[in-house]
Amino acid sequence: MEMAEVDMAIYGKTVSLIGEMDNIMVAKEAIEMILNGSRHKSVYGFLEHKKERGPPMHKSVKNGQLKKRASYGRIKVLP
C-alpha cells in the first residue's frame, strides 16, 4: 500500500501490514473503508489527506540518534 507507506500482504482472510505504527493505522482504516463499501475514490482522498497532514512519527533515541521504529500489524477479515 504505497500511499500509506506500508508493506501489505494478503493471504486468505488475513491482511498483514509492516511499517511505522501511525502508517499502519492509516492503512488499516483505509482497508476497513473499502471493506465497508466506500468508493475507491473516497479512500484515495482519505489517504491523500492523511499524507498531506503527515502523521506524527514514532521515534526512539539510541546513542543520541533518533531512529524510526518499524511495527507489524495484522487484520483478520471476517465474513
Question: What can you see in these coordinates?
Answer:
- The strands form two sheets. The protein has a three-stranded antiparallel β-sheet, covered by helices on one side. It has a two-stranded antiparallel sheet with strand order 3-4.
- It has 79 residues and is of the alpha+beta class.
- A hairpin with a 2-residue loop joins strand 1 and strand 2.
- The protein has helices spanning 21-35, 40-53, and strands spanning 7-11, 14-19, 59-62, 65-68, 71-76.
- 37% of the residues lie in helices and 32% in strands.
- It contains two helices and five strands, in the order ββααβββ.
What is the alpha-carbon Rg in Å? 14 Å
Quaternary assembly: single chain
Task: Provide the succession of SSEs.
Answer: EEHHEEE
Weakly predicted, low-confidence segments: 57-61
* Helix content percent band: 25-40%
Distance between the termini: 22 Å
Secondary structure: number of strands: 5
Total number of helical segments?
A: 2
For the sheet with most strands, the description reads:
3 strands, antiparallel
Mean pLDDT: 78
What general form does the structure show?
flat
Strand order of the largest sheet: 1-2-5
Class of secondary structure makeup: alpha+beta
Beta content:
25-35%
